[in-house]
User: Which sequence fits this backbone?
């Protein structure tokens, strides 16, 4: 493997472990072992565990942003249906991973935001970028007369992301998709003024 490929293998292996047990409980040795990289070479690829954590955040963000692009900018589908498709994809993921993963950025936010400012800043930037994806889709829904023209799409996007992240957390705890389904139903029936 090239240096870039090895670094990426470490990030991906680390992401899987962190998704299951958190950042602070993830040891460098476990990441090296999972990636099949010789012990002692971690610091050749990352200056610190913090640097590694930021790389994991950036990698997940890039992957998830591509997913949001595919779901929310699919102009062959009506804007509100794109949001329904986003919720459906999240529900499918929760079941596929047996309620054990949730959203890596949400998990890391709960764990790390109060510990280090560099993590808090990076995680907040990720959430802000995702929110803008929803704003754009909701603007298209408003332009298509799918939602009331007076709706504040910035506020709706914040409610969507914040509520969905909370529903994901509750689904993990309850080991049920019921909180996620309840939020999605409430978002469409109440937040969007019942026009869908």
Assistant:
């Amino acid at each position: 493997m090239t240096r870039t490929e090895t670094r990426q293998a470490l990030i991906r292996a680390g992401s899987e472990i962190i998704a299951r047990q958190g950042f602070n409980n993830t040891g460098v040795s476990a990441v090296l072992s999972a990636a099949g990289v010789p012990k002692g070479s971690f610091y050749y690829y990352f200056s610190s565990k913090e640097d590694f954590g930021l790389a994991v955040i950036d990698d997940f963000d890039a992957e998830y942003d591509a997913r949001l692009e595919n779901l929310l900018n699919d102009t062959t589908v009506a804007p509100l249906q794109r949001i329904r498709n986003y919720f459906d994809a999240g529900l499918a993921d929760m079941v596929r991973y047996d309620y054990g993963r949730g959203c890596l950025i949400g998990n890391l936010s709960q764990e790390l935001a109060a510990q280090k400012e560099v993590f808090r800043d990076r995680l907040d930037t990720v959430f802000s970028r995702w929110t803008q994806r929803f704003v754009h889709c909701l603007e298209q829904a408003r332009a298509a007369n799918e939602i009331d023209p007076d709706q504040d799409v910035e506020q709706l996007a914040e409610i969507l992301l914040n509520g969905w992240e909370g529903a994901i957390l509750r689904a993990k705890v309850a080991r049920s998709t019921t909180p996620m389904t309840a939020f999605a139903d409430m978002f469409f029936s109440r937040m969007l003024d019942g026009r869908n």
About this structure: The chain has nine helices and no strands. The chain has two domains: 1-46, 48-191.
